[in-house]
Amino acid sequence: MKIFSKEQIYAGDKLTAKKQGISSTDLMERAGTQIFNWLHMRMQGAQVPIHVFCGIGNNGGDGLVVARHLITHGYNVKTYIVNCSDKRSKDFLINYDRIKNVTKDWPILLSCKEDFSPIAIDAKDIVVDAVFGIGLNRPVDDWVKGLFNHFRASKAYTLSIDIPSGLHTDKMSNDPEAIVNAGYTLSFQTPKLVFFLPETAKYTVQWEVLDIGIDPEYLYATPTEVDLIGKHEVLPIYRPRQKFSSKGHFGHSLIIGGSYGKIGAVTLASRAALSVGAGLVSAYIPKCGYNALQASFPEAMVITDADEEKITDIAFEIEPTVTAFGVGVGTASKTITAFEAFLKKNKTPLVIDADGLNMLSLKKDLLKLLPKQTILTPHPKELERLIGKWADDFDKLEKTKAFSKKYDAIVVVKGANTITVFQDKLYVNATGNPGLATAGTGDVLTGMITGLISQGYDVLSATLFGVYLHGKSADLLVEDFGYQSLMASHVIEGIADAYLDLFKQPEQPKVEEADED
């Protein structure tokens, strides 16, 4: 799914109105009606008090449409106008007149109030937030922040239209009181990038996209800087196997890593590479790990370094299809020297994780030796060591894009919504859960990406597919293990189900047969 910028959304609205021969007011009616339909389907006429707070721009106009339909369908509605400036949009004014024609209880005007306690909102009520939309370009007034605090204090369920009011689509707000905390956000046509960033995702617990009929050709043809990667996006990536395939068709993955006490990281990565479909897997480790790895993972081939406890000289006679480096390897000076020598002679695609990333941070000249489109998989602290500190999540992504362009690297920014960065493009992963916040899951992801490249997937496709399957495995497993008990080895065991889930069809509702007389 494409994630459009606010400028692209505005352009799509204008083009749709022109091509479909409708006015912007008609498009607003369509959007507001979709919000009403969503509410009506769930409430079925229930007389829960609904408080609709409308700004005086187009988002407020959407809110007025929703309120009008709620009124005409007999709901218990109170409508408020947050009169925060003298500028009112044309479509807001049209819908303000329309709502006055369907009720004697005209919208209540709120202007520069400091005390909102007379507005009685109970915890069992519903607040519909239509104060500010994606076009907000100025600081939120203190008295409006007071209103947002009143929403929070009431503990009422809050539904935001398009975006939680006060939240920007392309920059941070430094004032949490200036942003509505939404229980649910109904976003028009496309989700917003801010729904997926650590600092801003907290402002909406859940979100859903509503189709408001934006021109389909525009949606299809317009390139975006951000894509959301879900099942529909990875299905075309999947490469089916031919009947007469052999292990030689699916490549040879080499996992280099491990040190005394950290052989488990290599074991996890090696198992993940084979489980995701690599034909062969070899592990290059210090001698201390030989027996443990051979015993725990007999499917792998093992090559050992001359040193007992660490990697000191990376030398092998095999011809791997792809190499992963860094899991559990440590940052001993001899290991860094061995890594540099390896980079100077390596000819395979490369995946770097963990201490491999720390070595790049300690010795930045090594970055120049990376092959094109090397995949780096940092967690937040590893990323900070690579690109420096950032002011906020938007700054982090800009710095990561600059790093990616400078070194022609693919950077997997791991997190609750893992974001893969390549050049100026962002790919937001739609799978995964807090169960992945445990030791070893990063090693598993490294192995999965490596195993996919081994099979012939191009490096970007392998990265996106690997991140998706990794998260999907956890999503399927969490129903049995819960967040707290999920372990990295479980994620490997769930790869098969993640693959199978790609081809599952949604269950159709059962139709009960009428009883015979």
Word description of this protein:
- The structure is a single chain.
- The chain is an alpha/beta fold.
- It has 17 helices and 18 strands.
- The strands form two sheets. Strands 1-9-18-17-16-15-14-13-10-11-12 form an eleven-stranded mixed β-sheet, with helices on both faces. A seven-stranded parallel β-sheet has the order 4-3-2-5-6-7-8.
- β3 (77-82), α4 and β4 form a beta-alpha-beta unit.
- Residues 511-517 have low confidence and may be disordered.
Question: What is the topology?
Answer:
Layout: E1 2-3, H1 6-20, H2 24-43, E2 50-54, H3 58-72, E3 77-82, H4 90-100, E4 108-110, E5 126-130, H5 142-154, E6 157-161, E7 182-188, E8 204-210, H6 216-221, E9 226-229, H7 231-234, E10 252-256, H8 263-275, E11 280-285, H9 290-296, E12 301-304, E13 322-325, H10 333-345, E14 350-352, H11 355-362, E15 375-376, H12 380-387, H13 393-407, E16 410-413, E17 419-422, E18 425-429, H14 441-454, H15 459-485, H16 488-493, H17 495-501
Parallel strand pairs: 2-3, 2-5, 3-4, 5-6, 6-7, 7-8, 9-18, 10-11, 10-13, 11-12, 13-14, 14-15, 15-16
Antiparallel strand pairs: 1-9, 16-17, 17-18
Helix pairs in contact: 2-3, 3-4, 8-14, 11-12, 14-15, 15-17
Largest sheet: 11 strands, mixed
The count of strands amounts to 18
Task: Round the Cα radius of gyration to an integer and report it.
Answer: 27 Å
Q: How many domains make up the 3D coordinates? A: 2
